[in-house]
Specification:
Chain lengths: 324, 288
Amino acid sequence: MTRAEQDMRVFFAEALVALGRAHPNLVVLDADLNSSTGTRRYAEEFPDRFVQCGIAEQNMMGVAAGIAASRRLIPLAATFGVFAARRTYDQVAMSIAYPRLNVKIVGASSGLTSAPGGASHQPLEDLALMRAMPSMTVIDPADNPELQGVLETMVVEYDGPVYIRTMRCAPPRVTPAGYRFQRGKAVALRDGGDVTLIGTGLMTSVAMEAAARLAEDGVGARVIHSPCLKPMDEETVISAAEETGAIVTVENHSIIGGLGGAVAEILGEHAPAPLARVGTPDVFGETGPMDALFAKYGLTVNDVIRAARRVLARKAGRAGAARA
Amino acid sequence: MTDTLLRALEEKAQQIRQLSISMMAHGKIGHVGGSLSEADLLAALYFRILRVDPAYPQWEDRDRFVLSKGHACPAHYAALALRGYFPTAELYTFGSIDARLQCHPSPQTPGVEIPTGSLGQGLSVAVGMAWAGRLLGRGYRVWALLGDGEIDCGQIWEAAMAAGHYRLGNLTAILDYNKIQAQGRCAEMMTLEPLRGKWEAFNWMVWEADGHDMAQIVAGLETAGAYTAGPGILIAHTVKGKGVSFMENTHVWHTHAPGPEDAARALAELGIDDPEAFRSRMMARTGV
């Protein structure tokens, strides 16, 4: 197994240590989850630059803010996405985002990848919550090489609050060789003129599979990977809407407020086009094997294909109506 | 601690009260009771204790002061203006649109280290600042002023637990213990006592003082400021609305900017007989 195909937590653990070696001003904070989030190795290697906060995430975010206020240290606070977004929302908003402090928040075990945990551990609305927060940059990386780029650009280079999802599984490699994450930029992974599938995080690989299957039926699907939910790459979305006329969004997240919401906002204001959102249907999660959860909650290749067919039908209907 | 110095600090506290009432009446907004109760503490901090340079608010070795009970910012703004962080005239922008002085502390105000207002968060930030100071080998002290209603918040106790765990000897909290919160007396709303024991149980050193006796305040703050074995808290026993008889010891003036008549009565008790002339004089102070 190459590093690129590791469980993202393992990859993250090593990447974080490498970052810590190169940047002595990096401080990592934990709330009793370092084995699960991947910060344990950092704690072992840099005990002086690791702050154990105990099971007190709200305090952890405030402590991170206080550390960032030094303007000398870069704090990275990692916990499960549910706690990083739901539990600490006001703390992140008022102590970090409002003063625009340079705090990096990692929301681990994204979406349904936190499979055994059930509803209390499955963040299905963290992208929606963080998107609505001013000053926040919101990122859902697709694979390990992309995460590496995210860490390099958004943790040590970029000055400002950032929310980064990591997943609890080994993601397929989907970003191309030589690609490097850029804030506010989406990347076209596959060209096509009939419909556009926009994915983020783990679901971009599902979108690619769906595109390959659609091609077998003569449907040309463009695939765009949008790792950055905020700021969105509006231009790429608008071009896709204007050039293909039908959009499907795919995310390991609720259909409300995440990628689907962001794309709907852009389409509605700039380039209205039929849209279908693939994601969890505004419900809380549950315990189960990951594959079973993705099937039950509508996040499979077949769900994406069905969504594509729905928007294609609406696109044809519109064209028909326009001709009549 | 000479009598002269104590009188000078008491004079500053009086000025803080005068400016607080005047600016809140002008802006028609503000938290009165908690501003008046903390005035003596702020005077001692800004004119005796804090190692700061108003001309250089980003000085890396500065002491940090966090007003965790952020709603009581009028008095803090008055102290900052008197200390020279911004012109006294600017106090009268409080309540207006586009003002640097917001109703709760915000990032753009010189002298404000961290926005507060959503109670219970400032102590956590103070913990982070203290931890960072120690890692960076800096000699500054972090001070956090807490409210007694505020310490209902769970996050305060999370921060207290962390400070005790990390033995943050460069962190000092002060409790403005005026015994009254927004809707009534703390003892009737949410019991805090035994309070001293709570902080000791979290591994904090605890001192107590009369929060309106300047000699006790200064002695308490100096003792606390010299304590480095771990975090410490000075419980300052205060009176909500202190200095204005009809505002004292009631929750009614928690947040309730005085109208012109009440402001005039209050200022008269604080030694200002002509509130309009006072305001004009203060609004003319456009330099630092």
